[in-house]
Design goal:
5 strands; 216 residues; 5-stranded parallel β-sheet; binds thymidine-5'-diphosphate; globular; binds adenosine-5'-diphosphate; alpha/beta
Length: 216
Amino acid sequence: MGENREGKKQKGNFIAFEGIDGSGKSTQIGLLAERLKKEGVCCYTTMEPTNAPVGSLVRQVMTGRIRMDNKAIAALFAADRLDHLLNEVDGIASKIEEGTTVLTDRYYFSSYAYHSVDVPMEWVIRANEQSALILRPTVNLFIDVDPDTALERIARNRFHQELFEKKSRLVEVRENYKKAFDLLAGEEKYTVIDGNQSREAIADNIWEAVRGYFGL
Ligand code: ADP
Ligand code: TYD
């Protein structure tokens, strides 16, 4: 069970999967959700950017269809995140409050890592302060994969590459993740998982990292 920055206990576990594009986040979320289900823990899986209206706008920016200033892009992701948390239909803050476990493919560390390529990291952290106050992950799982491996996986499986899926950018983003985790080590829980292994080996490492949060 986690707690938010005001020290209030959170009822459900909230696990954020982080990593560069192609690191295997969505694959591992599926495997962890299955494993938890077998243990009798049902969970809600979700992702950012969301499929809600702000998230759809974000996706249009990412494909290059809409052009926008980098700070405006970072703020748009922060707005999508607040909607993800607080939306009255399926907001995850109330799911956690009700005791549901939530697994998310990306949360605010993605913003810290990706946007600080163009905007100072401190600025991005401040822009996400409200989300951090509302809901801090029980643990951030950083699936660390070599950028060449990630790009090979993406090339094998997708017809197009998005704006951020260039090697030099992924190298920088990976470094930024490490900087952000170092910077916030005092207030955030995180675990680094070696993502260069087989799907099954990664899933086993993740299971060992999280099972204690479920008393398993
Ligand atoms: P992400 O959600 O981080 O972008 P995905 O889970 O979609 O990553 O994985 C990217 C691609 O790599 C997918 O086609 C997936 O099947 C494949 N993949 C995922 N994990 C592994 C792994 N450990 N080894 C090889 N290929 C993998
Ligand atoms: P997506 O298609 O979901 O990629 P992936 O499967 O790799 O997660 O697109 C997410 C992209 O958006 C990814 O390149 C990272 C980027 N992103 C940001 O730049 N800032 C953010 O705050 C988030 C959540 C994602």
